[in-house]
Each structure stands twice: as structure tokens, then as C-alpha cells.
């Protein structure tokens, strides 16, 4: 069984920042990320509100720089699945797809994952026209018609991005106005390829091998319409990836981990950082701040443990 001072679970902005601080503090640390380091940020075309980048920066590039920086300080990053986390005295046992690890402290930085609509046809057609990532799948829809579901920043920004490829982008939103910030809204309003379907929700996604159409339903009168599209991009929020610790720490009603301002959870030795945490603002910059604080708090916890 491998022994570590600190295990960081999750390799997004929070996890990588925690790793940078932990490695610089000479803690014996491993970061476990089941996918590509960088998290959901990797699929973001442009981050325009990250301080210091006047023209914005591509999400994948920013995360790649962070990963390189973390490795330069000596952080070990491993692509393992984490299957369980159990307290053992004043330490923890982390069960992974490559064996067990013991650690004196844990930072949970597992982030969030996209919510689904849970309508007929959605699950069956994921990866065959139903997508949650325009940056990943946009090029497959060159010259085609797609629907984007949602009205927040992510939905509208990705809809505008899809106009680079698609012939027409239909934004389906249950309200009569967007929730996205004004500057993001304006980009969509100014784009001739974007069309809005207000006061509607997706009721069903149709297709045999690939998406062929969606049924939209007016939330005011229940009227339904069948609209031919080649793809459906879903942006209706996120759910926290907190199942690993749901029986160990306190969560709010939505499943986000409750912490104090120093990232302590209700269980000594377990810290949480980034979007998985209950907080006001979920942005790259706040995730990084969380990660830095969590690493320093974990270091102090380990010092007390001796």
C-alpha cells in the first residue's frame, strides 16, 4: 500500500492549483484524475474574464500551462479511477484502480458534471448527436442545424461558437429572456446564424442512429412542435461530483460539499475545493483560490498530526 501525505482527487483548476502549492511545500502528494487534467475547463473555447489575459485564453491552453507548472514543481499526476475513500484512524485509505493509497489528508476537487434533460431519446443518442461539449463536437456539425438548450453563459457562448460550423443554431430556452451576461447575450443577438425559440423546452429527441429532430413544448400552453435538427447540445446546469464522500462529510440539498472559508469539511482531514464546494461563484479564478487555500490548510492539518 502506497503512503502519501496528501491525495488530491480531481485535476481541474482547483486540483492543479492545490497540487502546485502542495508540491512547493514539499508534501508527498499525488493528484488522481480519471480523465484529462484540466476538467471541464479544457472544453471551453475562450475564457475572457480570467485576470491578466486581455484577449482571453483558450481553456485547454490555460490548463495545459497549469499542468506543466505543477509537474515542474514535482507533482505526481496519475490517471486512476477512485473507487472508495475510507477513514482509518487519523488517516485515510483511498481505493483506486491501481491499488490502495494511504494519506493523512485529502482534497476533494472533483468538480461538477453536466445535468441531463432526462427526456426520451437523450440517453440513447449521447455521442450520436446529443452532446454536452460544443468545443469537442462542433466540427462534426459543419453545414448542419443544431439546437442548444439553455439560456446561461455556457449555453449562449457555446451556441455562438457552434456558428463557426453549423448552418443554423437554435437556442431553446424556457424563459422569454436569457440569463447570460449582457456582453454574452449581445454576441448571440448580433449573429445571423442564431435563432431563438423562447418559452420552450425539449420534450423529446428523435433519431435512429443519430439525432434527426427534437420536439419542443411551449411552457405556457403545452403546444408541441417537431423541429428537424442534426444535433442537440445540452446546457441546463451541472451537478456536483460528490458521491465519493456523501457518507463522510456534510452536503447541502443539491449535493455540494459544505466547507468553511479554509476549505475544511465536516470531517477532519478532508478538504474540498472548486466547483464541488457550496459557494456563491463557480469560476476558474475562484476554483484556483480554493485550491491554494485547501493545500495550505491540509499542510497545517498534517503538521498537527505530526
What attributes characterize this protein structure?
FAD/NAD(P)-binding domain, five-stranded parallel beta sheet, seven-stranded mixed beta sheet, 2 domains, alpha/beta, about 300 residues, single chain, 6 helices
Q: Helix content range of the residues, please?
A: 10-25%
Count the domains.
2
Strand content: 25-35%
Q: Could you tell me the mean pLDDT?
A: 95
Tally of extended strands?
17
User: Tally the helices: what do you get?
Assistant: 6
CATH class of the largest domain: Alpha Beta
Question: What would CATH call the homologous superfamily of the largest domain?
Answer: FAD/NAD(P)-binding domain
Largest sheet: 7 strands, mixed
CATH architecture of the largest domain: 3-Layer(bba) Sandwich
End-to-end separation in angstroms reads 20 Å
Can you describe this structure?
By secondary structure, this protein is of the alpha/beta class. It folds into two domains: 2-113 and 238-305, FAD/NAD(P)-binding domain, CATH 3.50.50; 116-234, FAD/NAD(P)-binding domain (3-Layer(bba) Sandwich), CATH 3.50.50.60. It contains six helices and 17 strands. It has helices at 13-24, 59-72, 134-137, 153-162, 182-189, 284-305; strands at 2-9, 29-32, 76-78, 82-88, 91-96, 99-108, 112-114, 130-131, 145-149, 168-173, 194-198, 200-206, 213-218, 224-228, 231-234, 238-240, 270-272. Strands 1, 2, 3, 4, 5, 6 and 17 form a seven-stranded mixed sheet that branches. The chain has a five-stranded parallel sheet with strand order 8-15-9-10-11, covered by helices on one side. Helix 2 links the parallel strand 2 and strand 3 (76-78). Helix 1 (13-24) crosses helix 6 (284-305). The mean pLDDT is 95.
